[in-house]
Amino acid sequence: MQEQRALGEILMRHGVVAEEALEALYAEQREKPVELFDLVVQNRLATDIDVARALARECGLDFADDIDLDAITLADATRLPLGYARSHRLLVLKEYEDSVAVICGDPLDTAALDDVRATFGKRLVVTVAPPAVVNEAINRVYERQETTSDLEGGEHADNADTIDILESDDDAPIIRWVNSLFAQAAKERASDIHIEPEEKEVLVRYRVDGELYIARRASRQFMSSVIARVKIMAGLNIAEKRLPQDGRISLRIAGRAIDVRVSTVPTSRDHERIVMRLLNKTNVLLDLPDLGFSQRDFLLMDSLVRRPDGIILVTGPTGSGKTTTLYACINRINHPNINILTAEDPVEYEISGIHQVPVQPKIGLTFASALRAFLRQDPDVIMVGEIRDKETAEIAMHASMTGHLVLSTIHTNDAASAFTRLVQMEIEAFRVRSTIVGILAQRLVRVLCPHCKEGYPGTPYELEQLGIDPARTRRRDDRRLSPAYIARSANEIVDYEPVGWRHVEPPTLYRARGCSICDSKGFTGRLGIYELLMADDAVGEAVMQSSDAQSIRRVAQARGMDTLRDDGARKALLGITTVEEVVAATQDDMFDE
Ligand SMILES: [Zn+2]
């Protein structure tokens, strides 16, 4: 791709991106076809809002970070074909007597603006918005054209069980409706779709960022057809309605591969209820830098996964993103010259280049037996889904001591308690000390929508909840000067981001508001908060002396460990999430020092 130097110059002139940073991006553009705009945003040199605002200023145009969809006239907007609107990031809002209001993501695309001017034969009133905002608005507006609501809000008689998709000659709307469920779910990044029979209607709920909400309703007379359609897609037995069933659907939506795990359960309402879990490959396969670690934690994690031996544990409750983190670790080191084997329950994603074994306890293939077999398979790195018994723990330790890197999870609330848990499994303290190299505790918090989040001065109570006070911040700063705190990776001295605040002024915190981009939810996606305990000599000493998690934790903190709540506080101060999210995710995290 050609270097977009003209755009680069503009960004430099408006102080959005520094010259040196741009040279690196140009070099990247010579290698692969990526828009400079996207590179700037991906590398977090500036937000899409900053870039779009600079472009607007350069071109002398108005800027908007949100689009009021209600102000758009569908007939005017759709005079531009959808493909054209998408590829030029351009949306017609409304045609007036002597002008046309247009919103665009790329005001430098003057040829496209000329096209619109020619199409309408009027002068244009152009507003610039971030491309993501424009794309989202385009999707919303053009989808109004297509009606997917044939089944919704119907006032038909409730003659349940009369329509069966196999007999029905009117199956096209059902197929379309079910397909649109998947499409909408993918667009909203839903992790689950629930289809539930209610007394008078069918309810469809989506789980987005951990929260369920009602997405659609349909007349109950279509329930059988909808269930049958999903069952056919998932390869299930349509006739069997009295027993639970499990199946799988592989889909491609807008070029993205999505695996769907389908589960049906009979209910007392004559119909089965269906829950579908969507596994989005692009969501699962992240790299370490995508996980939102602090600089220190990132460098330490990066050095841990590159070790030749040792055990790295990830802890946290179910649904705290442990698997995503393990996959990211493996993704980081996945290379043809390393033999990586995993035992998982189940295999969530097939990663090319590594060998994954689904455990099946029913036939005797447990984590322990898989692990034992792996040792005869000449591995370099072994990932085992969970250490939950003494046998698995012992083989993992044996693997580590014989020169293998082992990645696994263990079920504890905080990092230090993982030591206690292993000792409870009757593993000798010295073996724990000599094999465990690092323990990462984690939780997920919802990420504020960058387009509508609202800053406000934090109250003393909120700061107290986050564990932030000037005295504590000062103590933490003092600790940072000690050599023990320096991350030893690639000989880099880390420039630590502050966790606390020192000033008299209350720092700015952020709350959710809701806009058209985030579907009025105020949040988009989730991110981990972390507590990385490095099992260095001092921590090892503490493990040998006592299995009390509290004292191990204190030693680790003195060596520079930030607790879950510390990392949460950092992310609240950075405007990534809210105080409520952090407090809810770290309720059982005590803080003292
Ligand atoms: Zn928003």
Keywords:
593 residues; alpha/beta; globular; binds zinc ion
Outline the secondary-structure elements.
Layout: H1 5-13, H2 19-31, H3 36-42, H4 48-59, E1 62-63, H5 74-77, H6 82-88, E2 90-95, E3 99-104, H7 110-120, E4 123-128, H8 131-143, H9 172-187, E5 192-197, E6 201-208, E7 211-219, H10 223-234, E8 245-253, E9 256-266, E10 272-280, H11 281-284, H12 295-305, E11 310-315, H13 322-333, E12 340-344, E13 355-358, H14 367-374, E14 381-384, H15 390-401, E15 405-410, H16 417-424, H17 429-435, E16 436-448, E17 454-457, H18 460-465, H19 470-480, E18 508-511, E19 523-534, H20 537-545, H21 549-558, H22 564-573, H23 579-585
Parallel strand pairs: 1-4, 3-4, 11-15, 11-16, 12-13, 12-14, 14-15
Antiparallel strand pairs: 2-3, 5-6, 5-10, 6-7, 8-9, 9-10, 16-19, 17-18
The protein binds zinc ion.
Describe this structure in words.
The protein has 23 helices and 19 strands. With 593 residues, it is an alpha/beta fold. About 5% of the residues have low confidence. The longest helix has 16 residues. It has a 7-stranded mixed β-sheet, sandwiched between helices. Strands 7-6-5-10-9-8 form a 6-stranded antiparallel β-sheet. It has a 4-stranded mixed β-sheet with strand order 1-4-3-2. 39% of the residues are buried. Helix content is 37%, strand content 22%. α7 links the parallel β3 and β4. Zinc ion (ZN) binds next to loops.
Rg (CA only): 27 Å
Q: What ligands are attached or bound here? A: zinc ion
- Main pleated-sheet profile: 7 strands, mixed
Helix content: 25-40%
Strand order of the largest sheet: 13-12-14-15-11-16-19
Secondary structure tally, helices: 23
Strand content: 15-25%
The number of distinct β-strands equals: 19
Distance between the termini: 53 Å
